[in-house]
Amino acid sequence: MGRAKKVVLAYSGGVDTSVCIPYLKHEWGVEEVITLAADLGQGDELEPIREKALKSGASESLVADVKDSFVKDYAFGAIQANALYENRYPLGTALARPLIAKILVETAEKYGADAIAHGCTGKGNDQVRFDVSCAALNPHLKILAPAREWGMSREETIAYGEKFGIPAPVKKSSPYSIDKNLLGRSIEAGVLEDPAAEPPEEIYQMTKAIAYTPNDPEYIEIGFNRGIPTTINGIAKNPVELIEQLNQVVGNHGIGRIDMIENRLVGIKSREIYESPAMLVLIQAHRDLESLTLTADVSHYKRGIEETYTQIVYNGLWYSPLKSALDAFIQKTQERVSGTVRVKLFKGNASIVGRWSDNSLYSPDLATYGAEDQFDHKAAEGFIYVWGLPTRIWAQQAGN
Q1: CATH architecture classification, 177-356
Q2: Is 89 assigned to a binding site?
Q3: For 57-109, what is each residue's pLDDT tens digit?
Q4: Which of 65, 174, 177, 373 is catalytic?
Q5: Residue 370 assigned ligand-binding role
Q6: 56 is an annotated ligand-binding site residue
Q7: Model pTM?
Q8: Per-domain residue ranges for the chain?
Q9: Of 19, 20, 24, 33, nearest to 2 (Cα)?
Q10: How would you list the strands of the sheet with 339-346, edge to edge?
């Protein structure tokens, strides 16, 4: 099945993406497969992955370090939007996909490829995110998804790879499917497919069990500039360093675990386990700082925008006109969201215990109940009369 001559394949080094290389060449007539592995801070040793692609038949094997862009151009925007899918999941995996799509398209254009390919199956969200993002960035490129079409079981896939010299993976005792990057880990499959089963402690890596967390609380101060986190305890951090340090500090207190039944875009419910210490605390702190620096109407209206933004990102529409329009609104709201938030970390809980900003809209003289109170209490009666007038007229008309 000749579909393309030169293809750039999103490559992870796993079974599916490795088998995609000979499959594309021998079953679909692709002449040349270039692989591209994205370094998103997953911690894998990428040189062996690069070499494995060449051994599997790739003509060229590329590795792109995109950690800095991942945080600055994707994660920080999600923090400014307080993006939590179904009010729980901070989009760690979803945010990586439009970035991978972007470098896939750029690489295809650089090398004169006529198609890009990925190893996604037909059941997940990532196929949508890759396909739609790539089409938005370059609608002339073909998009190939062999694993979505080949119909092979995992055993058959491994056997197919062995025919072309791809070694079978060393049998792992772990039955879990894990995706990891700088923003966190997602864990599924195995016993986790039973929504009634408690996740075994062995699945976690970024967060400590509560029994092993420190017996004393730890306080951290996170500084924001226009909605973007920039400092920890008053010390400026580059974007990657900030996320890495918070992951370690927050996870050490057992904070950042999520166990949820998630509604996938393709229509099925999936039991998902996430670890995302830094992102959860950053969103919590950012939202709190907004409560201090945004007017009530902007703050309330922004909640609806945040929900729409989160749905768009989760559903693979990062490069869409609506996403761009929402970005403009969100960026406008962030102009005054600068200041510091103090967070108490203790036994699985992150509690906001203080916040301050030069742009604070909080007035102690108006809020106090002490002698310094400057609020005009007499004005309240007239306000209540006008505010309640429609309700009073309705009650009279209803015969009450």
Answers
A1: Alpha-Beta Complex (3.90)
A2: yes
A3: 999 999 999 999 999 999 999 999 999 999 999 999 999 999 999 999 999 99
A4: 177
A5: no
A6: no
A7: 0.92
A8: 6-163, 177-356, 369-397
A9: 24
A10: 235-236, 228-232, 218-225, 339-346, 349-356
